[in-house]
Amino acid sequence: MTEQGVYLYAICRPQDAAGLAGSPGVEGSQVRVLDVGELSAVVSSVPLTEFGEEGLRRNLEDLRWVEAVARCHNAVVAECFRRGPVAPVSLATVCFDDDAVVSRVRTWRAQVLEALARVDGCTELGVKVYQRQDEQSGLKEPVPTTSSGVGAGAAYLQKLKADAQQRESRSQTLSAAVEQVHHRLSGDAVASRRHPVQDPRLSGHAGQMVLNGAYLVAAEEVERFRGHVADVAADHPDLELVLTGPWPPYSFVTLEAS
What we know:
Blueprint: E1 4-12, H1 14-17, E2 31-36, E3 39-47, H2 48-51, H3 53-59, H4 63-83, E4 86-88, E5 94-95, H5 98-119, E6 122-131, H6 133-136, H7 150-186, E7 191-195, H8 200-203, E8 208-218, H9 222-235, E9 239-247, H10 250-253
Antiparallel strand pairs: 1-3, 1-4, 1-5, 2-3, 6-8, 6-9, 7-8
């Protein structure tokens, strides 16, 4: 029989974990719930051939495997979130057995209780901001003139300097606009975070990402926040704002395995 480990998805309150047992988990597993006092760990049993140290080292190099596990992981966390506040655990967190999970939950107890109270009644919305392509093209490097003489060379150098100054000015204007967007959106949120901007190859967007923001918003304020995003976008026609979510509060409570 293949040795089994215990995959940990999230931690929530017992009343919110009711009914989760038997839901589909990663690699065809079934979700189980381990009650630990006033907290519940949402887990499933997984083969250590795939989720042990060596298996993970191999599988984490396989993007298809990672995507499949991430989809299942997120689906379980989303189902927890649908029922109440949840503290997601980082992807592919595997413990040796149920006792190890219980020990970890007890270690995290104070942190988790504080986090659940903080995100109770809230959801995460993402706002990705892109510089429009016509704006990001900027100034092209000037083509050297074919004219000869000192005067032509001096004019070319002056043109280079002027163009560099204009690009710097545009960059400063863009940075100020991004700061203003984040500040305005943060004012309507319980909490906010800025993630690293994504490369276009990862974002799938042709424009250059200049802000990757996450905003914790009270559930009853979600529609107002959506409207505020539209207002901010209208005030910044040179930027494209893309709203995503609602999501479980990954950016604000995700527990990292030590």
